[in-house]
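Reply to dn_fold:

You asked what the input looked like. This is it:
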Amino acid sequence: MTSEHPSSSSALSQPPLSLDLDEIIAQLSKPRGESFHSWSQSRNHFPLPSREALFRIVDRLRAVLFPYHFGNPDLGETSSRYFIGHTLNEVLQLLHHQVCREQWLLGSQLHWSSDQIETHAQGTVQAFATQLPHLKALLETDITAAYRGDPAARNLDEVLFCYPGVTAITYHRIAHALYRLESPLLARIISEIGHSLTGIDIHPGASIGNSFFIDHGTGVVIGATTVIGDRVRLYQAVTLGAKSFPRDESGSLIKGQARHPIIEDDVVIYSGATILGRVTIGRGATIGGNVWLTRSVPPGGFISQAQLRQEMFDDGSGI
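and this is what came back:
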């Protein structure tokens, strides 16, 4: 009985394709537009940031922050100090290279010299390093909040190893620190790595207080100018987004304006809720599942789908 499909050995023995690619390669090699031409020129002088390197940087930073979980579980007190010191030095050297790469792109537009870029990069890495103890303390509050907020959590180790919300907030806190240190491209790449790993999309510009807990997490979106207070809890598929995007006279989007919600302390937002615009959800408020909200909520308020439907009916806009 003969097979209808060629065997792997016969497929490998086939001659290579003969393709005419010269014109295609020539077209692909051309820069597109003035901005891309400038970008291409910058790249010729200095390589672009590396997504793979930034993934390793965050991976090694997690080992520095939690050495027994992401470093070596057999470390003792003395060896852990050596491990942290060695790994931190390694990761900061890697980060310095990536900051230089980003600053070359930015600095070339400002006509910075190589010495100026180097000085700025060293200052950025030093400032980032000094924030690591505070960042670790923040993450410990996030881990504790997840453990206390989920009855299925058996211990803190399970939370740290397994909860996507903790992974996402770890990536975010690292990215946010770099964002505030004027490394927005590195920050955005790191945030997108976290997004791809967890399904949770947090812009590095978002400001998030302590004891933050995202339960389940898939589909959560937090916009760039969102401000979140302390002890806030979100469930899956929550969106904290913009209601509209203002444009200038030429029709271009106006960037940099505050356009996402402010979530005050001790707020709970249940799954599927969408909150849009620069509205304020007051302290201790609860937002029910699948609510669509474009107005502020007072402290201690409770918003549900049933309430919103009743308000529409009372206003004469319901059925």
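The first strand starts at residue 201 and ends at 202.
Hope that clears it up.
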